[in-house]
């Protein structure tokens, strides 16, 4: 690419043909370093040189599903990101989950957020990301709740155009573990399915009496990632895998499959599902006569609302701890919930988030808070508002301000995935103090176990890690 051609002009030339033709073109050959879209060799407008205080504007394209059945996923992504920026600014979060442009000022830097609705579609995400890069000339991209959408944006837009991309809350482990989608400027602070499974697997193997497990998962990237990582960890820990089965999303014929698990001698089952499938599994389990324990991950308020309703239907209202004891449901791992961490940052985060959005921070919000916190820290450490400089500063960064405590997330040098502690919690009735801000009959208990950040992610030398930066 000619030094005189900006990223915007080059992408516009590609047009409807796609971005594949830009493979190998990096920001280092752009006249502006791939950041603010000028086509001169001078320091970009609003960017100060390294070693000085940054001032100016960082333009961030935000891609989230903020309409449709899963709009709450996108809302969490936006609200968490907003909260991270607001915490760095010492203010209440103010960004709303709606399409358009909104600005948060931290110090002398304006963070302009160009929010776009992906509608949980990979095609939409790719098109919108392309438009943000070519039309709005954003310095960075952030977002995608769908793993398929996040991978598509990483591979076909961010990597091809040399634009830094912070994924999240998309959770498929493969997004930061395969050569096609990982990259020097592809980051993810949000926790992933491997972290769910590796934490849960270690707990099952080390802290429970379960020695034989049957694995179930949804037949797409999320479910396969959960099952494959549980299988790897459990086998390494000496737990026998007595069966494995993938089913379509929304699958409802569970009685026969649960009977198969019994016949195989399972003492526990793992369910790698979202709200589309999990309720049917729980209904069959609760209505049947099964002795094994159900393990997995604590999900968002949406799923907990459905599961809580099923428990109320089976056990009666009000739900009590006595009714839940001995049910064989959980404990479950959690990437984050509001009551898992007691520190100044998280306490402030919870209070401000509830005040601003009327809900407690949920599963995705710590990772997206940390994504914003890391970007601001990258600006401050590099003294620059240029996207490439921010990305360089985030490489192997330990993020100072996070809901999991000071220094709670660190980006791994081999794949730019942040590792962080995970917790394990029981299913308990929702406490009265949270009932207005948590719309489910059950919630996570306080942590019954913590899994160190060093044990939660896929190691660099694992057969499952196909990214080497």
Automatic annotation (TrEMBL):
<feature type="region of interest" description="Disordered">
    <location>
        <begin position="25"/>
        <end position="52"/>
    </location>
</feature>
<keyword id="KW-0732">Signal</keyword>
<dbReference type="InterPro" id="IPR028081">
    <property type="entry name" value="Leu-bd"/>
</dbReference>
<dbReference type="InterPro" id="IPR051010">
    <property type="entry name" value="BCAA_transport"/>
</dbReference>
<feature type="compositionally biased region" description="Low complexity">
    <location>
        <begin position="38"/>
        <end position="52"/>
    </location>
</feature>
<feature type="domain" description="Leucine-binding protein">
    <location>
        <begin position="57"/>
        <end position="428"/>
    </location>
</feature>
<protein>
    <submittedName>
        <fullName>ABC transporter substrate-binding protein</fullName>
    </submittedName>
</protein>
<dbReference type="InterPro" id="IPR028082">
    <property type="entry name" value="Peripla_BP_I"/>
</dbReference>
<dbReference type="Pfam" id="PF13458">
    <property type="entry name" value="Peripla_BP_6"/>
</dbReference>
């Amino acid at each position: 690419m000619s030094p005189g051609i900006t990223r915007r002009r080059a992408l516009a030339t590609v047009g409807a043909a796609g971005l594949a033709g830009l493979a190998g073109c990096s920001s280092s050959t752009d006249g502006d370093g791939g950041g603010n879209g000028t086509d001169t060799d001078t320091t970009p407008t609003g960017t100060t040189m390294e070693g000085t205080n940054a001032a100016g504007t960082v333009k961030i394209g935000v891609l989230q599903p903020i309409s449709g059945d899963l709009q709450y996923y996108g809302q969490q992504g936006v609200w968490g990101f907003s909260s991270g920026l607001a915490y760095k600014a010492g203010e209440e979060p103010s960004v709303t989950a709606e399409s358009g442009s909104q600005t948060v000022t931290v110090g002398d830097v304006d963070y302009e957020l160009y929010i776009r609705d992906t509608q949980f579609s990979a095609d939409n995400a790719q098109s919108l990301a392309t438009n943000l890069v070519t039309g709005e000339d954003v310095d960075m991209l952030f977002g995608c709740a769908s793993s398929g959408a996040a991978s598509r944006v990483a591979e076909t837009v961010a990597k091809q155009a040399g634009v830094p991309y912070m994924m999240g809350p998309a959770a498929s482990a493969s997004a930061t573990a395969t050569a096609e989608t990982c990259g020097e400027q592809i980051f993810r602070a949000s926790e992933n399915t491997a972290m769910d499974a590796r934490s849960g697997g270690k707990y099952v193997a080390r802290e429970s009496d379960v020695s034989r497990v049957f694995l179930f998962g949804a037949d797409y990237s999320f479910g396969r990632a959960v099952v494959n990582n549980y299988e790897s960890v459990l086998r390494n820990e000496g737990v026998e895998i007595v069966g494995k089965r993938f089913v379509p999303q929304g699958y409802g014929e569970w009685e026969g499959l649960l009977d198969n698990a019994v016949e195989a001698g399972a003492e526990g089952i793992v369910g790698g599902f979202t709200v589309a499938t999990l309720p049917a599994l729980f209904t069959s389990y609760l209505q049947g006569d099964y002795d094994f324990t159900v393990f997995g991950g604590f999900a968002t308020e949406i799923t907990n609302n459905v599961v809580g309703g099923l428990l109320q239907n089976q056990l009666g209202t009000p739900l009590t701890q006595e009714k839940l004891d001995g049910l064989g449901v959980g404990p479950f791992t959690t990437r984050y919930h509001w009551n898992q961490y007691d520190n100044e940052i998280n306490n402030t985060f919870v209070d401000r988030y509830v005040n601003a959005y009327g809900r407690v921070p949920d599963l995705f919000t710590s990772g997206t808070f940390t994504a914003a916190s890391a970007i601001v820290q990258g600006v401050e450490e590099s003294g620059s508002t240029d996207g490439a400089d921010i990305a360089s500063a985030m490489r192997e960064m330990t993020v100072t301000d996070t809901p999991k405590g000071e220094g709670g997330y660190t980006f791994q040098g081999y794949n730019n995935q942040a590792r962080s502690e995970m917790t394990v919690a029981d299913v308990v009735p929702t406490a009265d103090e949270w009932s207005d801000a948590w719309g489910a009959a059950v919630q996570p208990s306080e942590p019954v176990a913590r899994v160190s950040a060093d044990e939660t992610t896929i190691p660099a030398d694992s057969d499952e890690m196909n990214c080497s930066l």
